[in-house]
Design brief:
With about 90 residues, the chain is mainly alpha-helical. The chain contains 5 helices and 2 strands, in the order αβαβααα. Helix 2 links the parallel strand 1 and strand 2.
């Protein structure tokens, strides 16, 4: 876990946050062990799509990947499938 993830978890505890934004798997596990709910970039994009703030979720995922984010493609495909959207 990096300093950013560690800091987010500590701050989440200090301010009694109901939610912390984390993508890294180990950090998400640690946050949950401390009773902190987590949401990552995929969840944020899914929520934006559900609120009609984002019209093309697959395109947002492609842009995320092209910007250098590492997200397992299966996670993205499962997200699209769960929302009854065509695959990337």
């Amino acid at each position: 876990m990096g300093i950013g993830e560690t800091s987010a978890i500590i701050l989440g505890q200090e301010v009694n946050a109901g939610l912390v934004l984390l993508d890294e798997i180990k950090a998400r596990k640690v946050a949950r062990e401390f009773g902190i709910a987590v949401l990552g970039c995929v969840g944020i994009l899914e929520d934006a799509f559900g609120l009609h703030l984002l019209s093309d979720l697959a395109q947002a995922y492609r842009q995320l990947i092209s910007a250098g984010a590492y997200i397992d493609r299966r996670i993205l495909e499962n997200s699209l499938k769960a929302l009854n959207l065509p695959p990337m």
